[in-house]
């Protein structure tokens, strides 16, 4: 059985609830000793830019910035869809610590190794 877990996220400020819950689940996976990857695509790539998530805080949860920092500190992988990032004209020099811009092949490779996956 694979010890890999993937969270695919497409939301950012357009749905802060989904973005928050995705990182709550990702943190739970990391804490459960799963090799965990969050794949940010479409609108969610904005979360990879420093400062974007500073004001995102859903009631009842830790602030999103803190959830993302905890995820990275716990050994989580934060992958950012390259075409989605470029389409939005975002600045690669402003990536949050731990974020990596990758192509879709990286997601396919991770999933093909038997990773369980959820999408938000």
Write up what this structure looks like.
The model has no long low-confidence stretch (mean pLDDT 97). The chain has 120 residues and is an alpha/beta fold. 34% of the residues lie in helices and 21% in strands. The chain has a single domain, classed as Hypothetical Protein Ychn, Chain: A (3-Layer(aba) Sandwich). Helix 1 packs parallel to helix 2. The chain has helices at 16-31, 64-73, 82-87, 104-112, and strands spanning 4-9, 35-40, 77-81, 99-102, 116-119. It contains 4 helices and 5 strands; from the N terminus they run E-H-E-H-E-H-E-H-E.
Helices and strands in order:
Blueprint: E1 4-9, H1 16-31, E2 35-40, H2 64-73, E3 77-81, H3 82-87, E4 99-102, H4 104-112, E5 116-119
Parallel strand pairs: 1-2, 1-5, 2-3, 3-4
Helix pairs in contact: 1-2
């Amino acid at each position: 059985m694979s010890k890999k877990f993937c969270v695919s996220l497409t939301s950012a400020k357009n749905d802060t609830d989904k973005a928050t819950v995705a990182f709550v689940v990702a943190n739970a996976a990391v804490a459960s000793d799963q090799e965990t990857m969050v794949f940010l695509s479409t609108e969610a790539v904005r979360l990879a830019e420093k400062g974007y998530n500073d004001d995102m805080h859903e009631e009842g949860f830790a602030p999103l910035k803190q959830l993302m920092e905890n995820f990275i500190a716990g050994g989580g992988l934060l992958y950012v869809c390259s075409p989605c990032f470029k389409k939005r004209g975002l600045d690669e020099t402003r990536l949050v610590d731990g974020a990596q811009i990758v192509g879709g092949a990286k997601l396919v490779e991770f999933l093909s190794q038997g990773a369980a996956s959820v999408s938000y």
